[in-house]
Design goal:
With 151 residues, this protein is an alpha+beta fold. 50% of the residues lie in helices and 21% in strands. It contains five helices and five strands. The protein has helices at 6-29, 52-58, 97-103, 107-116, 121-148; strands spanning 36-40, 43-51, 75-83, 86-92, 95-96. It has a five-stranded antiparallel β-sheet. The chain is globular, with a radius of gyration of 16 Å.
């Protein structure tokens, strides 16, 4: 078992708050609830939840996490994992955020997100925020306007 000093715990919490400050407002716009955070042995998980069916309607084509039988009000999760002050993973129901970006033809951004895995949050959080904005804010807006104004 790893025992963190008080200073290390504060630094881990600061890293999580830094990420949340950049990503949380974007996910909030997309209908996600405020982050829930957990810190354990230098690992931090930042969890955001939104109504599963609403997310699936707003962003069709996301990887399927086998939620077909999910009850009404079920949660669609986006989880950001940090190891100390470094980005370890960004995933969501159905798979990784990078895979979802690839599926919706945002391969360049998916590659940039892959490149910041393992990097300090100061470097990684802006890219995570850009990916979240692209997938959960900009893409639904674009899809909505395409449906309203067919070519």
């Amino acid at each position: 078992m790893v025992i963190l000093s008080e200073e290390a715990r504060v630094n881990v919490a600061d890293a999580a708050r830094f990420v949340d400050a950049q990503v949380g407002p974007l996910l909030s716009v997309a209908g996600f609830a405020e982050a829930a955070m957990g810190v354990n042995e230098g690992r931090t998980q930042i969890l955001y939840c939104a109504d599963l069916r609403a997310v699936r309607r707003q962003v069709p084509g996301l990887p399927d996490g086998h939620e077909a039988d999910a009850p009404v009000g079920a949660c669609f999760d986006v989880m950001i994992e940090l190891h100390a002050d470094r980005l370890a993973d960004v995933h969501m129901d159905g798979g990784s955020l990078e895979t979802a970006l690839d599926i919706v033809k945002m391969a360049d951004l998916a590659g940039r997100l892959r490149d910041v895995l393992g990097r300090p949050v100061q470097d990684a959080a802006p890219v995570v925020a850009e990916a979240v904005r692209a997938l959960f804010v900009n893409l639904p807006q674009r899809l909505s306007s395409e449906q309203e104004f067919p070519a």
